[in-house]
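Hi P.,

Sorry for the delay on this. The queue was packed all week, but I finally got your sequence through. Input first:
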Amino acid sequence: MSDHAADKALEDRLLDFLQRSPSPWHATANLAEKLESAGYRPLKETDSWKLTRGEKYYVTRNDSALIAFQLPTTSLDAMRMVGAHTDSPALRLKPQPAIVNKGWLQLGVQVYGGALLSPWFDRDLGIAGRVHVRRADGGLQGVLLNVAEPVAIIPSLAIHMDREANNGRALNPQTQMAPLLMQGGDAPDFDRLLKQWIEREHAIEVADIVDFELGFYDVQPPARIGIHGEMLASARLDNLLSCFIGVEALLAADGQQGALFVANDHEEVGSASACGAQGPFLADVLRRVNSALGEPGDEGFVRLIQRSLMISCDNAHAVHPNFADKHDPNHGPSLNAGPVIKVNASQRYATNSVTGALFHDICREAEVPVQQFVTRADMGCGSTIGPITATELGVPTIDVGVPQFGMHSIRETAGTRDPGYLIRALKIFFNRPELVID
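Then the structure:
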């Protein structure tokens, strides 16, 4: 396959993954399917694990977080780890969302994460997530739901009724952002619609909707943008792009070294959950792996962690041509110019000179360009799973990511060449025999 054909095939796989992953639960299911088709064997946390050298496994938690790992054929000396997260800022439905107002059935929402709110107006919205139902036979069942057609919208208020709309008007998600679902509808109609959608998608007879975790999303599909297709526009690039990149790199690795990919949930709301980076998911898996193949005991586990490295992958802020003054002049990443090392003196990113030097060397070996990002000294900084994982586990960590525009918007923009660059670098990392710098 030519380089151009390979690049297009990679982009096509990415576009397909993004479109089929409208929620963290869908993203995790799609990652698991991809891993299993490549020979990774599923594990359950409630089972006793019997692990074999040279084999590949994956495990999920809460159906929204995933860890996949390959075991070396020889001794387990270190784990080459890549981390990302499955969640994105969104509008999530309230438990009793139905609102009847002025002849319309609307659905009340909660804002999940640090979402940019204004881009949600005038979008074709679908509904996706996880629902637990009681079947007609009395059994409880959890199902994924993806209503992929435009069933709702949040209309803007006309400029004639708000002359200050373009002057930074604040938005109230409680009173101004309830999507319109149905004209003339009543509260029980939403329960009826949910049952119909589930029965259509899963061919089961639903007696009751017991509980759900659902959110709205933009049904506009991902697309290549630009005269030369140099940009990729899609919802949830932060951080499904890193999830896709991490798994693609893991599947491309030679399988000789201990390697692991983790996709946590709840990063956008602080990571404090059983399946978030502040929770015990990664440590639980690593302890079980070390017990099976590594040096026994607490000392053996600490030795494994300190010989390992975590690359936290989360997208970086590219220099926006219309807002170039928002960047430090010497640290402005560009689209399609390679992965970005993210640095923050206050430890909002976990990078230090040791881990940064190692990643520079990995990119040199992979023959990919590399960039650096630091916020302006007079601006705040977001964070990632990197510092949290480093704090909870003690593992040496670096924060990197591909550059993008419009982070936390309902539709974000990245470069089409950057995913391939980072995949090449992470493949080298997964295959690297030695992680220690003298």
